[in-house]
DNA sequence: TATCGATTGTTGACATATCTACATTCTAGG
DNA sequence: CCTAGAATGTAGATATGTCAACAATCGATA
């Protein structure tokens, strides 16, 4: 690593401190590796992608259908991305869409419901192994609260 | 930091507890929103994508070139993804590659070095606003350590 | 109730990521 | 030296995500 850079932490604090930059890249790196690991486990066992699983699990939590805009908000996706992904999942018979006014309700098909029962324990095991095990229960709670502070504020 | 007490897991332990599932989705949601926000800020100001910036910053930290495999490891990417992305960045004149045995060294071009000076403060401001500000300095350190536990273990 | 702006969703072109298969170089053991 | 397996990269096909433009509905208000 290079060390001799003009790093003086001006009072203006234009650039990031070491701690700050490290937090950012630690976050990205953890996210990339976590996704790769869980995704590998799940795909090997079920053939489903990570986004597929995210949609299925969130959609399954609400009986009778979720509006797309709410689903997008839960996932942190934008509506374009969700629309494209739902089209793909729909063509594979996993979900169905019902137009309700200007909105669209998403629900699982029979096939989708069947698939999710298979996926859930596999996904749970992967999450537990790769994300939960490194932490104590109280750390799990603390970490969740910290992460929610990132997504909640409209900042 | 603290000792790794391990989970008390119910005998079944097939599925995730509420805390556990919430941690997982809080993580994914925070990641999606953080990436979207920072990426929007940076793209609006520079036209560079989030992966572009990640590669530029990591490559700039090492003088004289980084081996692709190491860059991939720092980023948490797999080598295929990095190879494709570097090809695109190379064709835009941002980086250059030199073959060294079976490996490849990546370094910034003049244009890449010029670009990164423009990007860095903008990126720093975006990271500060969206990731740092919600936390105290000690939380920043704690959070970084927690995230590193996710990526470090080969688990 | 007419109409304008905001909300919700889709589409197509393009950018990025993944998967499978392959080529080259490195390394350790005969 | 050889040579088999590991490590490093690349290529093309496919899957996924983003951007800009558009269409339909909602909702407030004049």
Automatic annotation (TrEMBL), chains A, B:
CDD domains: HTH_ARSR. One of its GO terms (biological process) is response to stress. It comes from the Bacteria. GO terms for molecular function: DNA-binding transcription factor activity. Residues 20-152 form the HTH marR-type domain. Gene3D superfamilies: Winged helix-like DNA-binding domain superfamily/Winged helix DNA-binding domain. This is Transcriptional regulator. The lineage of its organism: Bacteria, Bacillati, Actinomycetota, Actinomycetes, Micrococcales.
């Amino acid at each position: 690593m290079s060390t001799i850079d003009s790093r003086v932490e001006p009072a203006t604090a234009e650039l990031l401190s070491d701690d700050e930059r490290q937090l950012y890249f630690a976050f990205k790196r953890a996210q990339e590796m976590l996704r790769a690991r869980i995704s590998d486990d799940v795909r090997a066992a079920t053939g489903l992608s990570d986004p597929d699983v995210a949609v299925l699990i969130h959609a399954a939590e609400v009986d009778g259908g979720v509006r797309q805009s709410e689903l997008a908000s839960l996932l942190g996706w934008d509506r374009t991305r969700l629309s494209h992904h739902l089209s793909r999942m729909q063509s594979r018979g996993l979900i169905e869409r019902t137009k309700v006014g200007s909105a669209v309700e998403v629900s699982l098909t029979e096939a989708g419901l069947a698939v999710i029962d298979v996926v859930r324990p596999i996904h749970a095991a992967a999450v537990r192994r790769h994300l939960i095990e490194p932490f104590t229960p109280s750390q799990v709670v603390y970490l969740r609260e910290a992460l929610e502070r990132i997504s909640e504020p409209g900042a």
